[in-house]
């Protein structure tokens, strides 16, 4: 008989204090449940805190005020156009159609400060629909979520990873064990558990197994993402989905480790290899293009011009990377060739072909059709970049209400999940299906939906 004596009992236990966990805890509390959050690391926030904090919402009042027409059906079409059909099409539908309600709930009920971004659309969106803190920093989004948790007096235990799940004699999940840094264990009983522990980017064995294409690239996501949801899910017989899918980034500044804003490429910038040649359609996006950057043998350089620089400089964090000296100017193609140590004629030919394509004179040899404000004119700006894995996009299968499913498609009682722990909405494999904002939409959106389902079940069961 399992030992089911508890040190603490709550209605809803939330494992993980990133975007999914904090949103879930706030909703569950506001729906009347007793809630506790337990976080592995000494600091909350996970990937959410190091993201750029962009949350898509289709049909929000903020879009309407900016004159942007949008709705859930259009958003769903956009997402599926990039990702193709995959294991979690039902989550695409649910999240796209509820995204406006989510963004307005975040602002109105949770007190999160978000602005509609109209300067750029970013990958996968046919209209501007990303909403972000004015700093464009996930840290500010996280701080606002934490403030909402604190205003509600929701207990949040740091440095307290969930180390195991406990089942009763009927194999129903009813409790979890957390272990603090000094080895002290706490047994927490719950009515519902919401797993918000993100994916497995930090677990190199799981990345090699499921996403070998990106396994050798640097991982720049949060270090708490060690894949516990997958390991527990396997033990509990959970169904997994979209396991080969990931979110990557094609342009991490080297050696600084910061993201070069993709606005620089979306607005017309290019990437060249150590011969000074372009090697693909950069406009497929920062995630999809990462595999092409990884396939280059030598250094890769991102290049954009003064007009693009001025657009990107409207983003606060772009100014910060300028301070590192990671992005340098060159007054001509010759100067650029000298700085990159490439053949001037070859680089010049790459520029000429690209600029003619951007002017509509010829078709781009790599099929690029969106050129922003290109053709590129001096002054040029250049930065050495490398690809990186940001987050894995495969995980537990849930239904559209956030309930974890077993291998036969039945729900696993009491178990909910959201965010990077769950099969994502970015396609079945690779990095190409990732639309900007899909990670946070999944985390905040499914966290909010799962908490609503969990609390509804608690109150209907206790009737
Ligand atoms: C550099 C970067 C930029 C990005 N920019 C964007 C963006 O602008 N928009 C977007 O939509 N997405 C973006 N993403 C992706 C996005 O950040 C993630 O998809 C999203 O934050 C996942 O949220 P989450 O709550 O599932 O995980 P997280 O935010 O990582 O939270 C999970 C938490 O669980 C904790 N945890 C792990 N294991 C345990 C355990 N056993 N017990 C208790 N706690 C545990 C972790 O320490 C962590 O705090 C970006 C990612 C990166 C790396």
Automatic annotation (TrEMBL):
Cofactor(s) the protein needs: FAD
Protein known as: FAD-binding protein
Transmembrane segments: none
A Pfam family hit: FAD_binding_2
A molecular function (GO) term: oxidoreductase activity
An example Gene Ontology biological process: steroid metabolic process
Organism: Propylenella binzhouense
Electron transport recorded as keyword: no
Coiled-coil residue windows: none
């Amino acid at each position: 008989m399992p030992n089911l004596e508890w040190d603490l009992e709550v209605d809803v236990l939330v494992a993980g204090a990133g975007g999914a966990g904090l949103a879930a805890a706030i909703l569950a509390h506001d729906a009347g449940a007793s809630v506790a959050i337990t976080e592995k690391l000494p600091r909350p926030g996970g990937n959410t805190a190091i993201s750029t904090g962009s949350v898509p919402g289709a049909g929000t009042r903020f879009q309407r005020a900016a004159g942007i027409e949008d709705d859930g059906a259009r958003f769903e079409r956009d997402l599926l156009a990039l990702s193709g059909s995959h294991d979690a099409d039902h989550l695409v539908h649910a999240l796209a159609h509820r995204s406006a309600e989510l963004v307005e709930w975040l602002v109105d009920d949770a007190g999160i400060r978000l602005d509609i971004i109209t300067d750029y659309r970013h990958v996968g969106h046919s209209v501007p629909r990303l909403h972000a803190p004015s700093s464009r920093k996930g840290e500010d989004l996280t701080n606002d979520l934490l403030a909402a948790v604190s205003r509600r007096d929701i207990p949040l235990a740091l440095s307290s990873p969930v180390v195991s799940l406990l089942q009763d004699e009927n194999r129903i999940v009813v409790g979890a064990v957390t272990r603090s840094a000094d080895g002290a264990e706490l047994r927490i009983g719950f009515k519902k558990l919401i797993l918000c522990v993100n994916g497995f980017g930090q677990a190199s064995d799981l990345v090699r197994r499921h996403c070998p294409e990106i396994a050798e690239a640097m991982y720049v996501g949060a270090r708490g993402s060690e894949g516990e949801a997958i390991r527990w899910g396997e033990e509990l017989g959970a169904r997994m989905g979209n396991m080969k899918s990931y979110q990557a980034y094609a342009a991490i500044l080297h050696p600084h480790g910061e993201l070069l804003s993709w606005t620089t490429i979306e607005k017309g910038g290019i990437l060249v290899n150590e011969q000074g040649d372009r090697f693909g359609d950069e406009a497929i996006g920062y995630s999809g293009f990462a595999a092409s950057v990884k396939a280059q043998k030598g250094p890769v350089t991102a290049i954009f011009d003064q007009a693009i620089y001025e657009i990107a400089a409207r983003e606060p964090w772009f100014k910060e990377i300028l301070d590192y000296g990671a992005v340098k100017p060159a007054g001509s193609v010759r100067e650029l060739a000298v700085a990159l140590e490439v053949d001037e004629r070859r680089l010049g030919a790459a520029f000429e072909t690209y600029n003619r394509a951007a002017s509509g004179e010829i078709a781009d040899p790599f099929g690029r059709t969106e050129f922003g404000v290109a053709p590129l004119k001096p002054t040029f700006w250049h930065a050495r970049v490398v690809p990186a894995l940001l987050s894995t996009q495969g995980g537990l299968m849930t239904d559209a209400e956030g309930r974890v499913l077993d291998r036969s498609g039945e729900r696993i009682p009491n178990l909910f999940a959201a965010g990077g722990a769950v099969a994502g909405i970015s396609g079945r494999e690779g990095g190409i299906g990732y639309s900007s904002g899909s990670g946070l939409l999944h985390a905040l959106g499914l966290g909010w939906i799962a908490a609503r389902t969990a609390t509804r079940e608690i109150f209907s069961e206790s009737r």
